Amino acid sequence: VLTNMNLRNNGSESVIRQETIYKSDGSQRRALIETVVNKTERTFIVAEFNDAGASLTTTIGNKTTRRDVKLDPRAPRANPSTFWFIKTGPKVGEKAVFYSLRLSTQEWSLQESVYKGQETITVSGEAQKAHRVDGAMGVTWLDAKGHIVALEAGGLRLERVNVAPNPKTID
User: Fold this and answer.
1) Which residue, 16, 30, 113, 126, has fewest beta-carbon neighbours within 10 Å?
2) DSSP string of 47-72?
């Protein structure tokens, strides 16, 4: 999964690239986040997941550090909601509970995703049906193929900008 964002605010510009590679059970295999502020300040974090947790490599400017972030090997990491509408179709109310490593804090956190069903949302001024998934970080709306259409988290709403014209149903 690859996400690119360009944010501009009060003359400052940030470019954020986040990429996650998943195993077939939805657990993370590798993740990275790169942030560049005003084309000069670069932070790059890579997580390689293993049985003991994750090994992190963080580069800020020219300085690189490494550290391990442990997680009990019995803790659930598989996240079936990663593949909802890609490989599986959840029932309304279905939950996925799993641990996820947040690269921004470099800490594991217990997460829960709950499928709430279909609803009509407005994206780029157009009404369309989407699947709603609520989680600890916010709300995500997915199209029929499991791709993010919009998400809301921390008072911020992000919408996919390359959404093709959409029929009024998502069979």
Assistant:
1) 126
2) EEEETTEEEEEEEETTEEEEEEEE--
